Amino acid sequence: MKINELREHLCAQYPDLCPLFSIEFGDGVLLVECGQLLGAASDLRDLGFDRLGMVTAVDRGETFEMVYRLTSRSMSAGIFLKCEVPRDNPVIQSLTSLWPAANWHEREVYDMFGIEFEGHPDMRRILLPPEWEGYPLRKDYEDERIIHRPDYI
Amino acid sequence: MALVDKLGAALDSSGGGIILTTVDSLADWARGKSLWSMPMGTACCAMELIAGSFSKFDFDRHGTFPRPDPRHVDVMIVAGTITRKMAPAVKRIYEQMAEPKWVIAMGNCAVSGGIFYYDSYSVIRGVDEILPVDVYIAGCPPRPESMQDAVFQLREKIATESIAPGKKREVEFSLPMPGAGVRGGDAE
């Protein structure tokens, strides 16, 4: 599949999001509803985005933004798949059924942001000790052991 | 005068048959000249530590020889960032080392936490929070030459130790070394 065909296909599939999707100027960004995530990811995989390279999250205050980076070897293209998870109920579908590579990445996101993945085979902390409390990459994380950097440095 | 020279002179003057020395001198000489090291490399400083062991810098000529087994070694070289999750493992490895044992903190992270001193949720601020450190080496990372200097300084510190408990020997240091026994020579 050529990139233009891919764009048409995706625009037909997700008409609201078509303006956001700008694969001509580098990597595309596809923002979907979190309910659609598994379907969109499955679509993209069938279209040729066969490799999941990265899973991370961004703390946007009210929501967390999940970021998935997919690349295609046949099209030499990359795409960011994003979705917004509400902060008060951070639960999202796991992509481990599509890419086994998502396993440890999702565990790391759980470790750092506390976003839980439904359908993940082994949902527990990966980097921090199991008895750790809190999720350190959240903006409101507080820990009495942290020394904050003073302003004059 | 180094102990080896003293031994040589003694051998010359006695016709080669008898050496008179103290047990402390002999023990400290033997300990200081074969400091096998535990390469506790947890971050990028380990690269410099590895470079130091290879032929260009060659720590082996000073008797500092890396052994990946805590039960074989005399000095633990903590080269790198120690996180809260890693700290119990480092402490346990230190406890497995046989006495007498020493610790070198290599690099800013092992000395004070380095760039992770502020705003880090996971890094301990210096390995001296969990282990008794004998020699600190600053640098991010330090050159292998600094490592060699640390071994020489540790050797001087070992020379102050005695097999008698609680006793310190008087030794002249090339550099001022607080807390390492009595400073001899003109400085006193």
Short description:
The complex is a heterodimer of chains A (153) and B (188). Chain A has 153 residues and is of the alpha/beta class. Chain A has three helices and six strands.
Notes on the protein architecture:
The complex is a heterodimer of chains A (153) and B (188). Chain A has 153 residues and is α/β, with parallel strands linked by helices. Chain A has a single domain (3-118), classed as 2-Layer Sandwich (Beta Polymerase, domain 2), CATH 3.30.460. Chain A has helices spanning 3-13, 37-46, 102-113, and strands spanning 28-32, 51-59, 63-72, 77-86, 91-93, 116-118. In chain A, strand 5 (91-93), helix 3 and strand 6 (116-118) form a beta-alpha-beta unit. Chain B has two domains: 1-33, no CATH class; 35-163, Rossmann fold, CATH 3.40.50.12280. Chain B contains six helices and four strands. A four-stranded parallel beta sheet of chain B has the order 1-2-3-4. In chain B, helix 4 links the parallel strand 2 (75-79) and strand 3 (102-106). In chain B, helix 2 (23-33) runs antiparallel to helix 6 (144-159) and helix 3 crosses helix 6 (144-159). Chain B is elongated. Chain B starts with a helix and ends in a 29-residue tail after the last helix. Chain A binds chain B through residues 127-129, 136, 141, 143, 145-149, 153, and chain B through 84-85, 117-122, 125.
- Tell me the fraction of residues in β-strands of chain A, as a range: 25-35%
- Which residue ranges of chain B are poorly predicted, with pLDDT under 50 across at least 5 consecutive positions? 181-188
- CATH domain fold name of the largest domain in chain B: Rossmann fold
How many distinct folded domains of chain B? 2
The count of β-strands of chain A is 6
What's the rounded overall pLDDT mean of chain B? 83
SSE order of chain A, one letter for each helix or strand: HEHEEEEHE
Total strand count of chain B, please?
4
Radius of gyration of chain B using CA atoms only: 18 Å
Gap between N and C termini of chain A? 53 Å
User: What is the 3D shape of chain B?
Assistant: elongated
Class inferred from helices and paired strands of chain B: alpha/beta
Let me know the largest β-sheet of chain A: 4 strands, mixed
The level 1 CATH classification of the largest domain in chain B is: Alpha Beta
Helix/strand order of chain B: HHEHEHEHEH
- Radius of gyration over C-alpha positions of chain A, nearest whole angstrom: 17 Å
CATH architecture of the largest domain in chain B: 3-Layer(aba) Sandwich
Oligomer: heterodimer
Distinct helical segment count of chain B: 6
